[in-house]
Specification:
The protein is of the alpha/beta class. It has two domains: 2-78 and 182-260, HAD superfamily/HAD-like (Rossmann fold, 3-Layer(aba) Sandwich), CATH 3.40.50.1000; 83-178, Hypothetical Protein, Haloacid Dehalogenase-like Hydrolase, Chain: A, domain 2 (2-Layer Sandwich). The protein is 32% helix and 23% strand. It has a six-stranded mixed β-sheet with strand order 8-7-6-9-11-10, with helices on one face. The protein has a five-stranded parallel β-sheet with strand order 2-1-12-13-14, with helices on both faces. A hairpin with a 2-residue loop joins strand 6 and strand 7. The longest helix has 14 residues, at 247-260.
């Protein structure tokens, strides 16, 4: 079987910790002959410590399903937003008093205001943060708006400009956009093919709006935690508790590891 995991609020707790027994359970899955992969909305820089702790060398995906990486840092698949579309999305908001945005290229963030508090996390992770200029001319892995009360208006603008892009509007006002086919479901289908697993041999675990496509695509989908998005719950076959309560790990031990012992 191929087991596919989201990170945040699925394997990783609300305070960004990996429960102590998680790496051991992942190792036990591999020792039992199963494959383990991760599909996360995080970019590579912030996903890397968790991937290393879990022993996941690839294939896996970052920026949702937009970038699939193989062992040794080899890029297997990448979906990007074209520079002309990035400018079309961002230019109308360049002078808006409250809308912030960032354009992610590899581990580099091009933002409207590098000093805005909404990008403090990027500075603490020692990410490269640069001011977005009107002459920007690079394809992007992801665009992120931090718009608060105007987030719906921004989402409608993006939908009108790029109707086929993948869009994730979160409850905290953040809106993420990746290119068409950059969703986790497409990424998981590609990873399964690379590893030689049929759809019915794949189990996917996730909680968020960006997990809907992979939980739906998998032969068996598991929604995680009390905050699981309603759309994720609607397509899942099961619902387990949060990582703080050992939801995914208990399921794996009870359903997969103990019967094989």
């Amino acid at each position: 079987m191929l087991f596919a995991f989201d990170l945040d609020k699925t394997l990783v707790t609300n305070d960004y910790r990996l429960p102590e027994r998680t790496p051991g359970v992942m190792r036990a899955l591999r020792d039992a002959g199963h494959a383990v992969t991760v599909l996360t909305g995080r970019p590579m820089a912030s996903a890397r410590p968790f991937l290393e702790a879990l022993g996941v060398a690839g294939p896996f995906s970052v920026n949702h399903g937009a970038q699939v990486m193989g062992p040794g840092g080899r890029e297997l698949r990448r979906t990007r937003l074209q520079a002309v579309d990035v400018r079309a999305m961002l230019d109308p908001w360049a002078t808006h008093p409250t809308v912030e945005f960032s354009c992610v290229v590899d581990d580099h963030l091009y933002v409207k205001d590098p000093h805005d508090a909404r990008w403090h996390w990027a500075h603490t992770e020692s990410r490269v943060v640069t001011r977005f200029e009107p002459t920007f001319d690079a394809d992007a892995d992801k665009v992120v708006f931090a718009a608060a009360t105007t987030s719906v208006e921004v989402a409608e603008h993006v939908a009108g400009r790029l109707p086929h892009a993948e869009r994730y509007l979160w409850g905290d006002g953040f809106l993420e956009i990746v290119g068409q086919g950059g969703d986790k479901g497409t990424g998981l289908a590609f990873i399964a093919e690379q590893l030689g697993y049929a759809q019915h041999e794949v189990v996917a675990f996730g909680d968020g709006l960006n997990d809907v496509s992979m939980v739906r695509w998998a032969g068996h989908g598991v929604a995680v935690g009390p905050d699981a998005h309603p759309d994720t719950l609607a397509v899942a076959d099961e619902h387990v508790p949060s990582p703080e309560e050992g939801g995914v790990l208990d399921w794996l031990e009870r359903r997969v590891l103990e019967p094989a012992a």
